[in-house]
Amino acid sequence: MEDDEQQKKADLLQELVLRLVTQNPQTPNLDPNSPAFLEKLRYAFRILNSRLTPSVAPDATAIAESLKRRLATQGKSSDALAFADLYTKFASKTGPGSVNNKWALVYLLKIVSDDRKSAINGLDSSFLLPNLGFGDGFLRGGEAKKKDWENGVLLVSQDPENSWDEKEKAFRDYAVVVKKENEVNEEVLVRDVLYACQGIDGKYVKFNSEIDGYAIQDSVKVPRATRVMVRMLSELGWLFRKVKTFITESMDRFPAEEVGTVGQAFCAALQDELSVYYKLLAVLDARAMNPIPFVSEFASSDNYLTLRRLSLWFAEPMVKMRLMAVLVDKCKVLRGGAMAGAIHLHAQHGDWLVHDFMMNLLRCVCSPLFEMVRSWVLEGELEDTFGEFFVVGQPVKVDLLWREGYKLHPAMLPSFISPSLAQRILRTGKSINFLRVCCDDHGWADAASEAAAASGTTTRRGGLGYGETDALEHLVTEAAKRIDKHLLDVLYKRYKFKEHCLAIKRYLLLGQGDFVQYLMDIVGPKLSEPANNISSFELAGFLEAAIRASNAQYDDRDMLDRLRVKMMPHGSGDRGWDVFSLEYEARVPLDTVFTESVLSKYLRVFNFLWKLKRVEHALIGIWKTMKPNCITSNSFVKLQTSVKLQLLSALRRCQVLWNEMNHFVTNFQYYIMFEVLEVSWSNFSKEMEAAKDLDDLLAAHEKYLNAIVGKSLLGEQSQTIRESLFVLFELILRFRSHADRLYEGIYELQIRSKESGREKNKSEEPGSWISEGRKGLTQRAGEFLQSMSKDMDSIAKEYTSSLDGFLSLLPLQQSVDLKFLFFRLDFTEFYSRLHSKG
């Protein structure tokens, strides 16, 4: 159907040209098969097949209005109305038989009208179709005009006197002029340009180091336009030389670390592009073998090359080669992920040619990098011989494997991988290595296979590539979820992490009350001795006895074996109380959580709690001593009234001071045990259950331990109030020693007073109370009680002052719980009123 339509158009065009030619008086009977007619027909086909378009907007209505106005201004109103009516009918007609391109037809009528007007005014119509050979005789009512157009454009005249011989002569003259201006013909220059594009010097086009590029030698005579065009085309050779040099130097240095596998892949991708470029040059070289036809000659084929044609052939390769040269300059000092990221930045381009080229290049360049990611995420293997991956491993001890064994290298992180995704990639590989090295577990392999199946990828090499960021993120998410869950299950079930944390709470944080009380009772007398006289083996025996005598004996034996006595470094004046402590041995893999720094914090908390327990134990001991002495003190009926009053006053003072100290210690211990330890443990248990990976577990434990340290006044910001608290502890221990002396003296006084009545006639050793009689006994008792009262008053005064300072510091603390501790200690506002009076 289309062939019939084309044939119909060709027949109509032939008929039109035949009519125009036969109307020419010079060729009234021209044969349609003659070469002259066929040449004119080809010229007409060229005109119709040209892509020249009018410089006006395609608006049929506007052109019709222009024609109607022209008719009206010429006084042809009836013609204008008739034209308007005809155009209305013409524009409204649609369907079969109608004209589709109405604007083109109306525009043709306008051009014909303008042509007729020009012919009437004397313009030669042969200028419109000069090759059709119309002469001056064809002009209607016009005379022969001059051979040159009045607007200054010189055309070849179509007068009868101008024969084809004269045209040939003009073309020959043009050839002579061209030969004089060009010492080298264009075919040679084309071939030299092709050589230059391969980095090879030609006969006339050579590399000029002064201008850093290929150019025609200055001694060769060529027009400036030709020289400029050759220089522009030869830029491709300069770019090729830069890229080729980079590839050669990089491959010569491989396997040096500065090249790496990503750099090698980059060179391979560039080499592939150069292979395509070589194929193009081979095709162009074959075309360059065909001679270039002269202007007046008819080319037998279109397979020849000129400099202008070469510029069209070089358009796409020039874009690619410039881009490759830019990448070469950018990546000279880069490697690994940094190189891939730099190349990725050039892929964000709106030109589809550049975008597709960069995508193909990046698929090749990023292949080693994505293989490293796959191997790390699914196998835990760090295949990075040249230090190109954004995950870096370093040799460390087993207990530091998780925290310091692997780190991110930000300089090697490509821009198409987000920092959050990189962190997940790092953690997933770390989890696999932690399971394999620290936990001696191989169940992660099944979890990795399940993750690959769930994400729709494969565990084999080449399963991931550039442009598949969503697939990569899905794989990492699935792998991290399964492997982290398996890691936590191993820690909780196989290594009993929760049970170990509870054991530390019971023994290091003194949560096992019966064990702590029994240990305090049996080890207290020994710890009162100088530290140099205490054996750690003896203390270990006391520890084992406390375990067997308490409910601690029913705990897991493995955990009890980890509990040990530790003697801290001490000096010559230290007592056993100052150096005694307990420690908990953390083994692989639990030592990742219970590191040396973590255990040192636990040791600080234990020492603090042990000191608090010692103070509580001292107050309990005072109460045990105080109770029977208060009852028997009423039997001193034979003493003088003044001595009796001193005794009762001392006992009352001791009782009141003990009540104050017991009130403080009881409330402070309640705060530590319940508000600090139990609340922190409850929060830690919840966070431990909600943890999704080992990092979450470590963060939860660190938060738990820091909360205990901070609320227990062991932080750096609580140094002042901690020192004030320790002063109170020392005063309570001093009070214990003075109270013991007081009640020992009362007990001795009771015994001596009884013996003095039974043995008053017996002689006693000089210096004893009995030997001096009742009077001496009363005097010595009065002096003793007076001295003890002074000491008690001194301790009471110091205690009141220190307690006031401690209470004044509590509201200044950041922890809200410490502010509530102040309310518990002063719920009757006794100390507040006392402070206001003072």
Describe this structure in words.
With 838 residues, this protein is mainly α. The chain has 30 helices and six strands. The chain has helices at 2-22, 35-49, 60-73, 77-92, 102-120, 164-181, 186-196, 224-253, 260-288, 307-313, 315-331, 336-345, 352-365, 367-379, 401-404, 419-438, 444-455, 469-494, 497-507, 513-527, 536-549, 557-562, 576-579, 596-632, 641-690, 694-711, 719-758, 773-809, 816-825, 830-837; strands at residues 205-208, 213-216, 391-393, 406-408, 563-567, 580-584. The strands form three sheets. It has a two-stranded antiparallel ribbon with strand order 1-2. Strands 3-4 form a two-stranded antiparallel sheet. It has a two-stranded antiparallel ribbon with strand order 5-6. A hairpin with a 4-residue loop joins strand 1 (205-208) and strand 2 (213-216). The chain is elongated. 28% of the residues are buried. Residues 122-162, 761-765 and 767-771 have low confidence and may be disordered.
**SS-derived structural category:** mainly alpha
Chain-averaged pLDDT: 81
Q: What Rg, in angstroms, do the CA atoms define?
A: 54 Å
Tell me roughly what share of residues is in helical segments. 55-70%
Largest sheet, strands/sense/barrel: 2 strands, antiparallel
Poorly predicted ranges? 122-162, 761-765, 767-771
Gross geometry: elongated
Q: How much of the residues is beta strand, in percent?
A: under 5%
Strand order of the largest sheet: 1-2
Total helix count? 30
How far the N terminus sits from the C terminus, by CA atoms, comes to 119 Å
In total, the number of strands is 6
